[in-house]
Design brief:
The protein is of the alpha+beta class. The protein is built from 2 helices and 6 strands; from the N terminus they run H-E-H-E-E-E-E-E. A hairpin with a 7-residue loop joins strand 5 and strand 6. The chain is globular and about 35 Å long.
């Protein structure tokens, strides 16, 4: 069973606060340097209301929250952001999960890509050609 990285990060932050107090947390929370030569911000990514996602995307988000099991072996693997569409982060920051496409003989083109922050979920319906940050407030 793969544990979503944002849960590991939350436990790590809680442990830092418990053991070392706010100073340890500040040291741990230092941002990683950008890896790519160009800068992409969250503003460069589209957004989509959670209510506008297909039902299968909600199923995938539920599986991520539960920690699996996932329908495909590739689910939960590191997403490298080779396309450079998502904000630049260190390697291992993003993970990808399949959104089942009805009628498809394979994994299809739809994915949820998660970041390490809580509720940092991106949806793509076109196999990484574009991304929308899921807005849970609408």
């Amino acid at each position: 069973m793969k544990i979503p990285p944002r849960f590991i990060a939350a436990v790590s932050i809680a442990a830092a606060l418990f053991v070392g107090g706010p100073t340890a947390l500040a040291a741990q929370a230092a941002p990683a340097p950008a890896v790519a030569s160009h800068t992409v911000s969250a503003a460069d990514v589209g957004d989509i209301c959670s209510s506008a996602l297909p039902a299968e995307a909600h199923d995938t988000l539920d599986l991520i929250e539960q920690g699996g099991p996932y329908p495909y072996e590739q689910d939960g693997t590191v997403f490298s952001n080779r396309e450079g569409i998502l904000p630049d982060q260190s390697s291992g920051y993003y993970h990808e999960y399949t959104v089942i496409t009805p009628g498809s003989d394979d994994r299809g083109a739809r994915r949820i890509v998660t970041g390490e922050s809580d509720k940092e979920d991106y949806y793509t319906a076109d196999h990484y050609a574009s991304f929308d940050l899921v807005d849970y407030g609408c």
